[in-house]
Amino acid sequence: RKLYQHVAELVATKWNAGGQCALVVGATFPDELAEVRRLVGEMPLLVPGIGAQGGDIEATVSAGRTAAGTGLMINSSRAILYAGKDENFAAAARRVALETRDAINRYRR
Prior knowledge:
Layout: H1 3-15, E1 23-24, H2 30-40, E2 45-47, H3 57-64, E3 72-74, H4 78-81, H5 89-108
Parallel strand pairs: 1-2, 2-3
Helix pairs in contact: 1-2, 2-3, 3-5
């Protein structure tokens, strides 16, 4: 048994008595993300690794969403922060943020 499985199970069963816990699971490992989701049920998951780190949005959402299509806080920082370098930085960052949001929502259903 792998350490991440043990930790996920402990968090879900013993440490989350008040519903105050969440776990961080990388988007670059969708198989492990699916395993964590199976172990923790509806618990929220913070998922970094979309964008610059190469995590696939469709695979991430498919592996980590709850039955209702929720339960994920997907983070994309560098792809948005460094979308543009000149005076159009804000517009480029907005465009990438909206594209990322739209892709996440497309696969939630």
